[in-house]
Design a protein that fits this description.
The chain is an alpha+beta fold. It has 23 helices and 21 strands. Helices cover 38% and strands 22% of the residues.
Length: 864
């Protein structure tokens, strides 16, 4: 990956693009190097509505509520000794509504459609389960696929948006209210993006009738929602149509690109079915959920007590209490004026969360916040900081996000999730769980096979050493020769990533022992198998003590005595010594077996402890620490171990950012390693840079990015012709990427760019990159011209395109290389076998080169 700042061209836009590749370098190639470092819809409209609808107002601090922001203290104590049950992911509420029933949906034609609650780690399924006293309605699960890459001409990128889309923050924010109010055009918000996805299939014979019925039922559903009727019967009819789509899918499968698009249509329909049913069961579009009356004061008080107990009387406890505003919150909990306490708590929670979310914590400080009491406290604050949720407004936010898939569109939706998740209403919490599964799912998925792990296993040289020991209280001398082989064995587990580190040893020895006048020579042979159970967790590797099994045999090779020179007596003495040695052979062999086991275990534990500590340290410093600087600590959503592969599912997102929500591509069945990254993982990182609405000179922007990303200083001495330029980024989505139809699309939203005497306002810069695999390396090569979207004349377009065409140069492709393929001699027959960018996902895989794979390929075409 090119990260040099030494370019003879404008560098500030290029630096923004490098940020996108940073996530790839963190989550993909490094995640493959398991032995070195172990292991977490195309935007279509131009609306900005409700992008900030749920942002709590910033208010002045009240003296009676909070002190000025104190300096954050160091941690109170290490968390290493805490039980696993007391550690939780930050801001993740323990949401397990008792009324949600586990339910299995009908199988679809292409892969299982198992729906369970919580969802299976391998199936990012929506929640169509029922609650008591309601008719159960089974759901459909996610189907994933390998997608094709239509021509770039299909991308509608040249239409000029309305000026308000790229204007200054005031223009766009004026469209958003600060309170949660129903949409003005009515309660029902049509699924515009879903209907647009259906449009191409309305022209095809195989799907025309099905599309017509779906449209008709959606219209009927909207009318019933508006009228306040029970919509479950209509939902059941739409669900039946979703089931029918499996037979259509079979007809379309011979056309891979078309079949892939239809699967996305089906899953988009499933998402809506889940949401519409959840809204109906929560009271319909007229319902107002998670009001302040639904706040659980008793739970908040209990959480405060738990936090107090955890903080204890440590020297830094008071500083933490002030930083978290513990005393002011406790005062409000004990207030005798509930209505005034609710209002003040809303303001105080917003200020406290702003302090927490904006602060960069050390590793130990973050570990403390991740502990159960403090994580619960932060989750409680998120409930009180957000406004009540009206179902009609929630539906509009969902459709706004479905259409745009941007972080600004996701924020009000995720804020509603946090409010619903902590409500005392069971149905509000159930709706929150649906939102979490549908729009905050994993955005990074990594799969690693046992075969790849064993290829990466270190080779151990043979070890020859002298023997000087004591067996049966007799000194033993000689030499031993040991051969060991290290490998890995996966331990099937549906909920954890587990692998057994296996050490197989073969030890031969030539020894002798003195027993009075006799010297006995022995040939020894021992074979052992030691295993150490290792679990991959968000915090690193957690290992159990090794266990060992030793098989040992001893053969008497020769016997000599000091009386051998005396006829007859020498022979008799030898026989007596030999018989005595035979009688003691089993006992001696058992003691030798025990010594071999003890020595092997001691060496294995010493070496693995050192190696695991080093790996965990690198994991914390090189992966977790950079992500935590941007509040993107991985949220562990699922792990699974089968007989042949480990699968990890992670969400990289700050508390108010989205996760994956579309179908991911499947890796080839014979891939040895694969990774899928949703664009939300990268866009979440870009948003955390804090560029939105900010103004920088080129030098200031470069300095900020170097500081944030720990990039090297630019020692280029060439004068920058645009050094005096100033750039003001748009107030939302200043930099983002999209993975669409086989292309990487990079978009910079600029509110103003000035370089005297020129000034340009309200425009976007878009560059399309196509992926290629060249010499086992992944490259992104710019395709077509740099696009400028916004109101500007031809002269401005020529000037700006000249600048950005040099920045996004066609002649300098970006390279992202899984370098370990070239570095490891056991991987020379492997290559990148898949590189696909579709529906918001980037998927790639490593497998055998085609010529080598042909000899090993069987009938295994199943997906993983």
């Amino acid at each position: 990956m090119t990260t040099s700042l030494q370019r003879n061209e404008p560098t500030w836009p290029f630096l923004l693009v490098l940020i996108a590749l940073f996530i790839l370098s963190v989550t993909s190639p490094r995640a493959w190097r398991v032995v070195e470092r172990p292991d977490p819809p195309t935007p279509g409209d131009n609306q900005w509505t409700f992008a900030e609808a749920d942002r709590p107002p910033r208010v002045e601090r009240r003296q009676n509520l909070a002190t000025t922001s104190p300096a954050l203290p160091p941690p109170l104590a290490s968390t290493e000794s805490l039980p696993a049950a007391q550690r939780s992911s930050r801001n993740e509420g323990a949401l397990q509504p008792a009324e949600v029933q586990h339910q299995v949906a009908a199988d679809m034609a292409h892969g299982p459609s198992l729906l369970q609650f919580p969802p299976d780690p391998e199936r990012e399924a929506p929640c169509l389960e029922s609650i008591p006293d309601e008719r159960p309605m089974a759901g459909l699960a996610e189907e994933t696929h390998v997608t094709g890459a239509p021509n770039s001409e299909d991308l509608a990128l040249h239409a000029d948006p309305s000026p308000s889309e790229h204007g200054h923050g005031n223009t766009m924010e004026a469209q958003d209210g600060s309170s949660d109010v129903p949409p003005q055009h009515g309660l029902w918000t049509p699924p515009t993006s879903l209907l647009a996805m259906l449009e191409p299939f309305a022209q095809r014979e195989e799907t025309r009738g099905w599309v017509s019925e779906v449209r008709e039922k959606i219209n009927e559903l909207g009318q019933d929602f508006e009228a306040g009727k029970n919509v479950l019967p209509v939902l059941q009819e739409i669900y039946a149509l979703a089931q029918q789509s499996s037979s259509i899918q079979t007809q379309l499968d011979p056309q891979p690109d078309l079949a892939a698009d239809f699967r996305q249509v089906r899953y988009a329909l499933i998402r809506r079915l889940s949401l519409w049913k959840a809204i109906q069961l929560a009271g319909g579009l007229q319902a107002e959920l998670a009001t302040t009356q639904n706040g659980d004061w008793a739970r908040l008080e209990k959480t405060l007590n738990a936090v107090e107990h955890r903080l204890g009387t440590d020297s830094t406890a008071q500083a933490w209490r002030e930083f978290l505003n513990i005393e002011p919150v406790k005062t409000l909990v004990q207030s005798e004026s509930p209505s005034e306490a609710e209002r003040q708590l809303t303001e105080l929670a917003a200020r406290t969360l702003e302090r927490i979310d904006d602060h960069t914590f050390t590793e130990d400080q973050q570990a403390l916040l991740d502990e159960q009491p403090l994580a619960e406290y932060v989750a409680e604050l998120r409930f009180w900081a957000a406004p009540a949720v009206q179902a009609a407004s929630l539906l509009q936010r969902v459709e706004n996000f479905e259409s745009k898939a941007t972080n600004s569109a996701a924020e009000p939706l995720v804020r509603a999730y946090h409010r619903l998740a902590r409500s005392s209403q069971d149905r509000a919490r159930w709706l929150a769980r649906c939102l979490d599964l549908l729009y905050r799912n994993a955005n990074v998925r990594i799969a690693i096979t046992e075969e790849l792990l064993n290829r990466l296993a270190p080779e151990r040289p043979a070890d020859e050493r002298p023997v000087a020991d004591v067996i049966l209280n007799r000194p033993v001398y000689g030499s031993s020769y040991a051969e060991t082989k290290v490998g890995f064995r996966l331990i099937p587990d549906p909920l954890r990533a587990r692998v057994a580190l296996t050490v197989r040893g073969h030890v031969t020895s030539l020894t002798y022992a003195n027993a009075g006048p006799a010297t006995i020579w022995n040939d020894g042979c021992a074979e052992y198998v030691a295993e150490k159970d290792v679990e991959i967790t968000p915090h690193g590797l957690v290992a159990s003590p090794a266990v060992i099994d030793v098989q040992n045999s001893v053969r008497i090779r020769d016997v000599a005595t000091t009386l051998d020179s005396i006829p007859v007596l020498g022979f008799l003495t030898q026989e007596v010594a030999r018989q005595q040695a035979v009688r003691q052979r089993l006992e001696a062999s058992e003691e030798a077996r025990w010594k071999v086991a003890a020595q092997a275990l001691r060496e294995i534990e010493n070496e693995t402890e050192t190696q695991f500590s080093r790996l965990n340290q690198r994991w914390r410093e090189e992966v977790l620490a950079p992500l935590r600087r941007f509040h993107l600590a991985p949220t562990w959503l699922g792990a699974q171990t089968t007989e042949d592969r480990i699968v990890l599912r992670v969400r990289l997102a700050a508390p108010f950012q989205p996760g994956g929500h579309t179908l991911r591509p499947f890796a080839p069945a014979d891939a040895l390693a694969s990774c899928q990254i949703h664009q939300s993982a990268i866009n979440n990182f870009l948003q955390r840079l804090g560029l939105e609405g900010k103004t920088y000179t080129v030098a200031e922007l470069q300095s900020k990015l170097r500081e944030k990303l720990h990039l090297p200083e630019d020692d280029s001495r060439e004068e920058n012709p645009h050094a005096d330029a100033r750039i003001t980024f748009a107030s939302r989505d200043a930099a983002r990427v999209e993975f669409v139809q086989g292309k990487l699309i990079i978009t910079l939203a600029v509110a103003e760019l000035s370089s005297p005497p020129n000034r340009w306002q309200d425009f976007q810069v878009r560059a399309l990159y196509r992926p290629e695999i060249h010499n086992d390396r992944i490259q992104f090569i710019r395709e077509g011209v740099v696009q400028l979207v916004g109101p500007m004349d031809m002269r401005s377009q020529i000037a700006l395109r000249s600048v950005f065409s040099r920045t996004f140069s066609k002649d300098k492709p970006w390279e992202v290389s899984p370098g370990f393929l070239q570095r490891h001699e056991n991987l020379t027959d492997l290559t990148v076998t898949q590189l696909v960018l579709e529906d918001g996902w980037l998927g790639f895989a490593v497998g055998r080169r085609p010529a080598m794979a042909a000899t090993q390929r069987g009938d295994d075409h199943s997906r993983h």
